Amino acid sequence: MEQRISMVTLGVRDLARERAFYEALGWTGAQQPDNEVAFYQAGGMVFGLWAALGGHGAPGVELAHNVHSPQEVDAVLAEAKGAGGTIIRPAARADWGGYTGAFADPEGYVWEVAHNPDWRLADDGSVLLG
Length: 130
Prior knowledge:
By secondary structure, the protein is of the alpha+beta class. The chain has helices at about 15-25, 70-80; strands at about 5-10, 30-35, 35-40, 45-50, 60-65, 85-95, 100-105, 110-115, 120, 125-130.
């Protein structure tokens, strides 16, 4: 697994309220493909607000590590498991068109590992929306 974070996602109860808050702080250019998530470009990474984090909308934090292919998702999950992590979402096709799974580190912090065909992953690991 490369030493980088592609995205930080905050689980929120009220997406519209949270989006209004961050936009009042000056954040612009949100991409909101549906009523459950909004993404902001944040330098070479993405900041997300997700009303459905963990299927319950409760506040929480999830880190993400984007990769170039579905095969890399599988490889990183296997590496995490071998290092002592726990697979909490086995890799699978996502309804948003990508391929994703997740692991928890020994303290329970969750990392999503994802291939998103709609985002560009630069050679330096930067993630670019669209």
